[in-house]
Design a protein that fits this description.
alpha/beta, 6 helices
Length: 205
Amino acid sequence: MHAYTGTLFSHESPQWGEIFVARKITRGLARIDGGLDDCIFMDNLDSLRDWGHPRDYVEMQWLMLQQEGLPENFVIATGRQESVTRFIELTAKHLGWNGITWSGEGLSEIGSPVDNGTPIVRIDPRYFRPAEVETLLGDPTRAKERLGWTPTTTLEELVAEMVACDKEEAAKESILRREGFDVVGSMENPTTKPLSLTTKQTAES
């Protein structure tokens, strides 16, 4: 079998489930921005990740399969590393916020919008993972040298795309709640605002 092996580092998109940290962030902050939630709960904010976009990685996979000769192994990554904290800050920026202020340490660390100081990011030990990997960084040098591949979507562009999608979804849910529909939130990051506060009767009172 003529087969290549690709080691894909973290790749995110609006289609990813909210159990993945990047989508949890963009979805959660978009819901806060839309008045649906008050806070998101995180684990290790200092984790470092190499985030890319699936469309770049699929292109790389296609390029691998066009090669002749003996199959090779390739790393599919961006070569850029950022912290979870930075991902949150980029999300806030694309929501039009004026930044995030961090305070406290460990379990007491919180993140608050610069404009109002109300905590919207908190640490919850329930999300700690015993096999947590502190740092992930891929080296796509071989992919660039042998196949001429480099990722074309920056982290900032990736975050902007995810935020735009999640803002739209949050707006839809806001409308449904105002019209009196009970919307079931995610079980991974349950709503922090009671549904009764967003029913049609409350909105009209």
